[in-house]
Amino acid sequence: MTIKLHKRTIEVLKNLRKFNKDTYIASNLAGDLDIDYIVLMSAINELQEKSLGGFNEKEIDQVSLNDEGLLYLKKGLPERQLLNILLEKNIKEIPLKDFQKFSELNEKLFFIGISYMKKNRWIAQSKATGENKIFLIEEKFPETDLEKCLKKFKANPNLDYSELSKKDKKSLDLLNKRQLIKKKRKTQRLIYLTEKGKTIKISDIEELDQISKLTSEMITSRTWEKYELKPFDVNKPGPLLKGGKIHPMINLINKIREIFLSLGFTEIRGPIIESAFFNFDALFQPQDHPARELHDTFYLENPKVAKLPEKDRVEAVKTTHTNGGDSGSIGWGYNWDEDIAKQTILRTHTTATTIRRLAQYYRNNDKPPIKVFSIDRVFRNEKVDKSHLAEFTQIEGIIIDENVTLCDLIGVISEFYKKIGFEKIITRPGFFPYTEPSMEVAVYYDKLGEWLEMGGSGIFRPEVTYPWGIKNPTRVLAWGLGLERLAMLMFEREDIRDLYINPIKWLREESY
Ligand code: PHE
After folding, report:
1. Residue 497 C-alpha to ligand 1 middle, in angstroms?
2. Is pLDDT of 1 > 70?
3. For ligand 1, is residue 480 a contact (CB within 6 Å)?
């Protein structure tokens, strides 16, 4: 049987055979052949129908230069720009200060340039004469690996990270550290020819002169008679319908919300911009606690100062820190500083929000039992990688009631995980400055046969509850669990970033 193909498809086939490679990146190929991507892919589909070719999909990390990187591609890296100035003016040594004056680079770039000139061993710096001077210590200044790598973007503005050589990867990591590039996850299509596609005689292929659409003119003028009409294949599957749908994370959040509502909880929300007071101080975390340090917490410049609650409650928290107040504790024994408590931050946990509920409890003279939960965003200054995000979501809750115990706490947490689909949970001793006892919560993940940590829980210490008038036998059971960790297990994603980067393939296939 002869094979019939559209003219354009035959052209594509001929070209692919001429290039003679194993695979072709679809987006590049469209450029090389100077045809539209869509047109190319419809030709490939036609080849696929006839078993002559096809394509595979691969997820890649695409890297490109950011604006600063593009500028350096044009003008050279700061170190090269500086070097060129010296060479042009034939300067072999010069006081750093003078150099800076006529370099035209701003101060930051100037010093970055100088430091890389030193790293490249182009210059040395010495204060031997009493003056801070630099000296050229080379005659020739060939392109560095970094510059060679940078230049690659000239030929191709988007590079596939996995296809780079070890050396280029190293250079690229350095460019990344210098914040000159941006990375993007992309799905790449790799086109190939089958054995049949590579060997079939072009003369055996017939050019298709079929039409698939009839217009009224064609019918009235009878021109349709000149063409072969494309037959309908009623057994062929229709095109895949890709409708919009609700994001799996939203569905999961709604499900969790339903579970807590069904257990008799009320949802609460609190501000994302929080005071250190509610995020830390009211949780009996001393003001020099390491978690407050800059590498964990995002401190804000604007607004810089937060409002504190009622004076007497601030005083109660202060006293607890200084000497324990009436909580039965001796406190931390240091001078509590109100200004530190007024610092504004992005909340690092939604426990800040449940403490606000304790404040409201005091203000409204509420009576137990109170059961509230929140599912909300928190922020920590973490390096983002496949298991960490700098913004993530906590499933938080408290129960305020008389004579409640650790057993009640374990019961509620187990019930929650059971309802979401995890039958087995384990709690083990943990530590949080604001709970006693404290427990870590882990769920059993069948697929890996492992216990995976999900978050923390415990009973708020008297130092936390007394300032809000909550005293024995009334206690507060509390927990804070990770949403994204849970989502990774439920959606079987290995990279936590996928949950928000939205790989389209996953979103289409995920039925949750
Ligand atoms: N706030 C803790 C965290 O962010 C979790 C927690 C909440 C622990 C409530 C105990 C009680 O990890």
Report:
1. 22
2. no
3. yes
